[in-house]
Design a protein that fits this description.
Layout (H helix, E strand, L loop, with lengths): L4 H12 L6 E4 L6 H11 L5 E4 L2 E4 L4 E3 L5 E3 L9 E4 L10 E3 L5 E8 L6 E4 L4 E9 L11 E6 L2 E6 L2 E3 L4 E6 L2 E6 L2 E3 L3 E6 L2 E6 L2 E3 L3 E6 L10 E6 L2 E3 L20 E6 L2 E6 L2 E3 L4 E6 L15 E6 L2 E2 L11 H7 L7 E3 L5 E3 L5 E3 L16 H4 L14 H6 L2
Parallel strand pairs: 1-2, 2-5, 3-6, 4-7, 5-8, 6-8, 7-9, 8-10, 9-11, 10-12, 10-13, 11-14, 12-15, 13-16, 14-17, 15-18, 16-19, 17-20, 18-21, 19-22, 20-23, 21-24, 22-25, 23-26, 24-27, 25-28, 26-29, 27-30, 29-31
InterPro entries: Beta_helix, PbH1, Pectin_lyas_fold, Pectin_lyase_fold/virulence, SO_2930-like_dom
Protein name: Parallel beta-helix repeat-containing protein
Organism: Sphingopyxis flava
Length: 400
């Protein structure tokens, strides 16, 4: 039998090539909506779009996605006319959605009342969180899930235009990751509004962090696979009225964040805080501290180093300092402590035209400068300001 080689090659190519990208539509309201949606996430292939119908989805189990290059797209995030994934009846204690694959785009849906975290991604490079809402609708409660938006151990992370309310740890949290942008988002009534933890190269800008316990946190903690957090820029944000009493479960590191904290930097290196509007934060608009808890990790560096604070607008602050001895210090200073509070450890330069209070605790490093520093002064040994984060063009294109 003769074989036509052109036909044979075409047949082999068809058999071995990935299927053409397709849209998988799943409707809300069906009794088996949970199973149908999870099935769609399992059957999706690279390039596919899983499209969530408008309406409220009543879900009892968490969802997972482990296929690369998949878009999960809803019909919007507003009550009544969008896609709302309601986990109020969730049976387990896990997250609402777990993503463990690369090049995933999540957009235009809401996740409500998960028992655990709202949306978590782990080891998911080039992930985009866009126009999402994660909320615990009863407001701040210790029993709420810990994190709203929660990417960890990833490279190239974009969080754009999300809203998170009610997380008992952090509303928007990025941990142990590299190359991160968090922008144009709102975090309110969480313990920590936005938290960047043990990360390298992050830009946090044009966000609103309000009515949290602490607005924006930049931490580095011991005993984690990635340490030495550095190169973080916090700029052009509104960080105001972070007045919610701390409702984190006891034992969590954020349970120690004083109510009324604006921006808090702990044990990080090369952090720039500039161009922000900081107001009505009862403890301080900006706090810079070392890690002052017991630890056994010999590689850990507990001091803040090369922290630069400049050209921020400060409103009222320090009128209700919620740390031991804070009320007494405020009374002695006429009712308010200065807007910038430093524990005295490590090295920091503050160029805002406001008062700075150093507590002069042990490990005091370089004193703050009252003169306008040069770029070299701001960065310690570095000669240039931080350049900022550039994400792959493919990620930016998805949110245009």
């Amino acid at each position: 039998m003769q074989v036509h080689w052109v036909t044979f090659i075409a047949a082999v190519a068809a058999a071995t090539s990935p299927a053409a990208a397709k849209t998988i539509s799943v409707a809300a309201g069906a009794p088996d909506a949970n199973e149908k949606l999870q099935e769609a996430l399992i059957l999706a292939e690279p390039g596919d779009v899983v499209e969530l119908g408008a309406g409220t989805w009543t879900l009892t189990d968490g969802l997972s996605l482990d296929v690369d290059n998949v878009t999960l797209r809803g019909a919007g995030t507003k009550d009544g006319d969008g896609t709302i994934l309601d986990f109020s009846g969730q049976q387990g204690a896990g997250e609402g959605l777990l993503v463990t694959s690369d090049d995933v785009y999540l957009t235009n849906f809401a996740v409500l009342n998960t028992k655990g975290d709202g949306i978590k991604s782990k080891g998911a490079d080039r992930i985009v969180y866009h126009q999402l809402r994660v909320e615990w609708t009863a407001g701040p409660k210790e029993t709420n899930g810990a994190y709203g938006i929660y990417p960890v151990e990833s490279r190239d992370v974009l969080i754009d235009s999300v809203y998170v309310r009610g997380a008992s740890d952090a509303g928007i949290y990025v941990g142990q990751s590299k190359n991160i942008v968090v922008r144009d988002s709102i975090a309110m009534e969480n313990v920590a509004g936005i938290e960047i933890e043990n990360c390298y190269d992050a830009d946090v800008h044009d966000n609103i962090a309000t009515k949290n316990t602490g607005g924006i946190l930049v931490f580095d903690l011991p005993s984690l696979p990635q340490q030495g957090g550095h190169n973080v820029r916090v700029f052009d944000n509104v960080v105001s009225d972070n007045s919610t009493p701390n409702f984190a479960p006891k034992g969590n590191i954020v349970a120690s964040v004083p109510t009324g904290t604006g921006v808090l930097v702990m044990a990080n290196s090369r952090v720039e805080i500039f161009g922000n509007l900081l107001a009505d934060n009862g403890t301080a608009n900006v706090m810079i501290v070392g890690y002052r808890y017991p630890y056994e990790d010999e590689k850990y560096q507990p001091l803040p180093k090369d922290i630069a604070v400049w050209d921020n607008q400060h409103g009222n602050a320090g009128f209700a300092p919620a740390f031991p001895g804070g009320a007494e210090i405020a009374a002695a200073m006429g009712g308010n402590i200065p807007p910038v509070l430093w524990d005295g450890a490590g090295s920091a330069i503050v160029n805002d035209e406001v008062g700075v209070l150093s507590l002069n605790l042990p490990d005091v490093g370089t004193p703050q400068s009252e003169a306008k520093p040069s770029p070299a002064d701001l960065k310690g040994d570095a000669s240039e300001p931080l350049a900022g984060v550039t994400l792959p063009a493919s990620m930016e294109a998805r949110v245009q």
